[in-house]
Design a protein that fits this description.
There is one protein chain. This protein is an alpha+beta fold. Helix content is 34%, strand content 25%. The protein has a 4-stranded antiparallel sheet with strand order 2-3-1-4, with helices on one face. The protein is globular.
Length: 92
């Protein structure tokens, strides 16, 4: 069994559309959706390219999850930059 992590641009009702697209594929056991970080984890025996293609056919923008997405999510979740700390070192 394989887990495929995807970044899918979603708004409120897109989760239902996403699940409907993936329900048509054979071999999918579980779909986990995190709407805040726009991350979808699909677990099953379906090939990762077929999963991506099915989501895109459903009219959603999707791509494979990367380490860069983790950084962007962490940066966006730091509300009003309270948890991000910058040093006061002068580089000049």
């Amino acid at each position: 069994m394989e887990s495929v992590e995807l970044k899918v641009e979603m708004v409120g009702i897109h989760e239902k559309r996403l699940r409907k697209c993936l329900s048509k594929l054979k071999g999918i056991e579980k779909v986990e959706v995190d709407a805040n970080s726009q991350k979808v984890v699909v677990t099953g025996y379906a090939h990762r390219n077929k999963i991506l293609k099915a989501i895109r056919r459903g009219g959603l923008k999707a791509d494979f999850w990367s380490a860069q997405n983790e950084l962007l999510t962490a940066y966006a979740s730091a509300s009003t930059y309270g948890s991000l700390r910058f040093s006061n070192n002068n580089f000049f």
